[in-house]
Amino acid sequence: MNHPLFSWLTQRAAGALLHPTALPSRQGVGVLGGAAYEFVDMLREARLSYWQVLPLGPTGYGDSPYQAFSAFAGNPYLIDLQALVENGLLSDEELNPLRELPRGRVDYAGLYERKWPVLRQAYERFQGQHTDTVADYGSFDTFCEAQAEWLQPFAEYMAIKAHFDGKFWGEWPDDLRMRPRDGHPLIDELDDAIRAHKFYQYLFFGQWRNVKRYANDHGIEIVGDAPIFVALDSADVWSNPDLFELRSDGSPASVAGVPPDYFSPTGQLWGNPLYAWDRMRANGYTWWRNRIECNLQTFDALRLDHFRGFYDYWSIPADAKDARSGQWRKGPAMELFRTLHRHFPEAKLIAEDLGEMSQGVFDFRDQTGLPGMAILHFAFGGEGDNLYLPHNLKPNSVIYPGVHDNDTTRGWYHASPEKVKDHVRRYLRVSGEDISWDLIRTAYSSVSRLAIIQVQDFLSLGTEARFNTPGEAVGNWQWRLQEDQMGQMHQHAPYLRELSTLYYR
Fold first, then answer.
1. What's the burial of 270, exposed, middle or buried (CB within 10 Å: 0-12/13-18/19+)?
2. Domains and CATH numbers, the chain
3. pLDDT tens column, 141-153
């Protein structure tokens, strides 16, 4: 039997799942400021070794981290403006419009209207300085040069998009619908706006690098998240059309989704363009190598979303009304992962292998050696052969009570049928009155080497704290941790340390 490619998850550990937008702040959204450092302190105090986040890319319509304008860029909403006040690029009063936004949730419309003008003001002041450095973020010019391969097309894309009032690139003039390789008068005209978007990325990565360094120095590793597909409305597709299945006019020839199943009789039509895997193979998967390299510089470990899509994927005609007319097509499978292993042999990758999986997908996952995922919310109500029941788990796996797409554990339990509740109570030998902590203890005690808990479950919060409801286009990604709840997290630290001792995490 061949040895698996990757073999990194060898120690038992625990961690927490919290997207940075959910951190407390007075800036309308969680930012890479004081609360991020306090959260790291709390993780260390609780003997948690991992902080898992969702994708950090710049979000567009719907505010989903999984539909970003770039697979490489960071989200400027996460920039801590208070740090720019301390560095003389903003006045404290200029933050007041953001302080008027709600603290209990993210008001993305209000954030869009109020944060971009403040960031622009910081850029204009930076332009008037006699230095190319802010704080300890390094040289701006050096950053632009080092990241030019993705940064230049991304900044052009964002500047042109703003020029055309946010329209999708497919609605731009014909000579701009694919990135001009030999320049364009409008790109020259927008030079200052392009430089501004580079500056926002410089700030984001400067602040993120400091947060990550602080976490690493305190024994915390950060787990990132890479959606397998990119958004059609993205710099990735606009600047690399030959790597996607597009028609001559730039529209997608086929799109991603999943077939009909028990949960959806018509399947799910995601709409993301599909990769032209044959062309990617021909150039040695350069785009994927660059993407993984960028992610591994940004994070310590990386969750690969919709992992089965690397093995086979559901291809749907672009003009289809739902996903029923799709067909399975083979992905690059081991060829891609052998390529990645040659370039990144020490990469810490996690396979998101949830949902309907064939034996072929499981065999593929085991060949790669990547740990898969187990969700306790999916374990109960059926027979004893359920893959997610603790007695069926494998050590090389990451266990969660639930993830960002699930309800909180308390919300899930209260909404579950009595058959599920009864199974939970009998299997765990609990009353169900403290269900969040019942599942936390179950995750800690399992054979899975890594246990990750949503922060909402540490706080025993209900459905009101759910982060995302798949299939609902509005109202997601808005929940935020409050300052007093951060204090409650500190109070749980002694018990979490005890659990880590008991279960050797």
1. middle
2. 13-502 (3.20.20.80)
3. 999 999 999 999 9
